[in-house]
Amino acid sequence: PSQQILQEGAESSRRQLLIEALVSGGRVDNITMVMGLHPQYLSSFWKTQYLLLRMDGPLPYHKRHYIAIMAAARHQCSYLVGLHMAEFLQVGGNPAWLQGLHCAPQKLRNLNEINKLLAHRPWLITKEHIEALLKPGEGSWSLAELVQALVLLTHYHSLTSFIFGCGINPEEEQDGGQGCRPPSPHSDSSPASDDSVGGSGGRDAMREVEVLVERMKLLQEGQLEEESVTQEEMATRFELEKTESLLVAPSDITDPSLQSNVLCFVEDPEFGYKDFTRRGEQAPPTFRAQ
């Protein structure tokens, strides 16, 4: 409810922020519209984005936007990819780079491995990954450049989650209203249309929930028949059932309907998230840095 989101005076604050967005960028994107429901948060977010993309720093502007594209493409978020492809061209980026990661300079391509790990399994990063990027030679990074690049990567990995979580659709002029929806590995249907918030994606999710509920009922019925089953054993069965259910998407499946303008920036697309710790398995060592 709006009364829970916007406090007294916040509506005028939000309006002022949206006017500033229109004046500075010539448009108000959907991220701004959604985040504007929390004006103070939007204001902090804007300052962060402005510092990362517009203010002085070791990386030239066009490379900052290209790194944003790489990060968003890793999570298959075509909304952000399209947004920063346009920004990349506006600040003088080479259009040939947008044909895919293979057309970018080696220096940017060297970020692929650490981008992949940061996006899906950040606990696997070691000091060797940092050393490899800083090592003198062709395509080497300075420490200042690498710090800014890593902040950009993690910032856009997180922003992708915000976009998917809020169900933000592309602006009509961006790419015809297609493609910010996260991939659905269990559905071969075409991308949802602009007004399909409760459409095929919602129906697929409901079916998955119904299947899981049915499985849980069967387990409970089985428990009544097996009185000797302990509470701990039942908890383990429920956890296993949930993990193996349709709600948990396998990491090695890529949605075939995803546009080529996203996948062209991704190498090793089948690499995805795996649980950090599993019962009975030794956890991988964590990399800690001051």
Automatic annotation (TrEMBL):
Gene3D superfamilies in UniProt: AhpD-like
Classification via InterPro entries: AhpD-like, Sestrin
GO cellular component: cytoplasm; nucleus
Biological processes, Gene Ontology terms: cellular response to L-leucine; cellular response to leucine starvation; negative regulation of TORC1 signaling; positive regulation of macroautophagy; regulation of response to reactive oxygen species
Keywords: Cytoplasm, Oxidoreductase
Family: Belongs to the sestrin family.
SUPFAM superfamilies: AhpD-like
Main location: cytoplasm
Residue ranges with Low complexity bias: 186-197
Organism: Nyctiprogne leucopyga
Compartment annotation: Cytoplasm
Catalytic activity line of the entry: a hydroperoxide + L-cysteinyl-[protein] = S-hydroxy-L-cysteinyl-[protein] + an alcohol
UniProt entry tagged with the keyword Magnesium: no
GO MF term (any one): L-leucine binding
Protein name, per record: SESN2 protein
Annotated region described as Disordered, given as residue ranges: 173-203
